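ok so dumb question maybe but i'm new to this and my supervisor (M.) told me to 'just get the structure for Histidinol-phosphate aminotransferase' and walked off. so i did the thing. is this what she meant?? sequence i used:
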Amino acid sequence: MSLFRPQVQQMTGYTPGEQPQESGWVKLNTNENPYPPSPLVKAAVEQALAGRLNIYPDPLATEFRKVAAELFQVDPDWVLPGNGSDEVLTILMRTFADAGDLVSAPYPSYTLYETLAEIQGARFEKIQLNPDWSWPTTQAQEISAKSKILFVPNPNAPSGNRWSDEEIISLVPPQGVLVLDEAYGDFCDQPHKGELLKSQAGERIIVTRTLSKSYSLAGIRFGFAVAHPDLIQGMQKVKDSYNCNTLSLAAALAALKDQEWMQANTKKIQTTRKHLMAELGKLGFETVDSQTNFVWCTHPDQEHERRYQDLKRRKILVRYMKFGLTAGVLDGLRITVGTDHEVQTVLNALQEIG
Ligand code: PMP
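this is what came out, is it supposed to look like this??
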């Protein structure tokens, strides 16, 4: 007899990207920002450390919500903070999906959605994207119509493409919610600030954001949701009271206040991204027009796994990904946009290993 819940027994479990603990790696596998966070973050954390760590943090994250709300031009009761946006996704699943409910997401996309659905005991359906990463419109509508939650990362991961607002709005489930996962939203040429929340379908849309990418705070773990207060209120009931700690709250607040720093880093990454895509093209790779801090690339010779291993031997980590589609297997390399130097290192290595 197993001690585990049936859902847990059946699970394969989620495998995060490799995080080598020793130095010396060119680490371009988990879409971290290569630049440090704003200096204001360090100052704020030091100040928080010198403060009262013996008392619990503010369960309402009042200061953070105020600043985040200003950015999205909404009131603070539209914001819910989380211990990374992955935690926000967990809170969403626990708030909106009952056991047996249908949860859906495009495929290939972020694989955590399926894992969270499995844990919750929800059913999960993949909406298989077309080979050019566009939506299979009719099938998407059919699945959305039955879904309690449809998760859509926009821009998408691992492809990096961004779908239009019209497409996103057309996907909002009539009997459920659309979670618009904008983990990479700040890297878009034209970033959004919650515009879709103010559309007619906005009452059923929840935008999630992370500070792990554009704000260079992956190590701190901070993300947040923005949605209509009715939806946030339900999520508030589900989240742990003290899900964000005193130090991470201080760091997140300081990072959000320094928009200039975030935007300067984002600009650098956009420039490097353009260079990386152009150079990959010269090496014979096909790339997707990326609106993120990573580039998805495939090579006509299909030797993606061999290249991943060859790079790893040189202490260069990129992400090798493989997806089973009805038309066969799709695999490729997802390369994070690092510093110019890191990107040149991976390009030189790719040239050498062929
Ligand atoms: N959504 C997507 C699409 C992601 O790629 C990631 C990062 N792996 C996340 C959410 C989670 O980010 P975090 O938990 O660091 O905020």
